[in-house]
Amino acid sequence: MNQHKMKITQYNSKYAEQTVDMWRDSKEQAIGQKEIHSFENHVYFLDHILPEQFQIDLALIDEKVVGVIAYNEREISQLYIHVDYQGIGIGQKLLDKVKAQSSGRLTLYTFEVNENAQRFYEKHGFEVIGRGHENEEKLPDIQYEWIFQ
């Protein structure tokens, strides 16, 4: 894959269906259960609910959505990478951008079943600060924190 072709851009709703498709596939693979919300509700969430508190960026390769991250200066709400494009540095590039504009401290939640995500975050300087929070999926999760050193 040509890394230099990847670009990070602010979310635009013209990418809504691609983004939600990718997000659902990635999440399903990560946690082993079907998405509980309908596709339409998911698109609505992405276009209307998420942007109220978070900036959303996409990673694109030739106009194909290969990653999404939703964040503000204190928190990462969502980070999903296309199942065919994992492990090649896309998540790291998105994370580096978010770290650079953060308050110097970021928190996030990930599912306990998602061991790949845990390895990824721990490799990039996040530490566990809590376990077992409420979520719609009814799965135990882990809270992570990154502090700028």
Automatic annotation (TrEMBL):
Supply the Gene3D superfamilies for this chain: 3.40.630.30
Domain N-acetyltransferase stretches: 6-149
Give the domain of life. Bacteria
Q: Name one Pfam family in it.
A: Acetyltransf_10
* InterPro entries registered for this protein in UniProt: Acyl_CoA_acyltransferase (IPR016181), GNAT_dom (IPR000182), MshD_Acetyltransferase (IPR050276)
PROSITE patterns in the cross-refs? GNAT
| Protein name in UniProt | GNAT family N-acetyltransferase
